[in-house]
Amino acid sequence: MKWFFIIANVLAAIALFFMGSFAVAAHRTHAYSVYRELQTQHVLAERPDYDVEKRLRTMADGGMYSLWIAEIGGGLLLVNALSAFVLFRK
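and the corresponding structure tokens:
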């Protein structure tokens, strides 16, 4: 039973990391698709001194909090797996 909890915690930590990465990728993809849509519809007033695509990319990087939350959660799951390995002797 001990190994079931350890493996489940490790797999959940890996899943959380991937889910956080997917969320960040979704933010970045959405930002780029918004830029392309605005460009296609000719509603952007692009100036040489201001890069709209770069600005939208920096806004999308604000979604990094999902990866940070996933990393913290994954770390806690790994600590839980380690404690199960150390504390449960049977």
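(Above: one complete record from the training split.) The chain has a mean pLDDT of 89.
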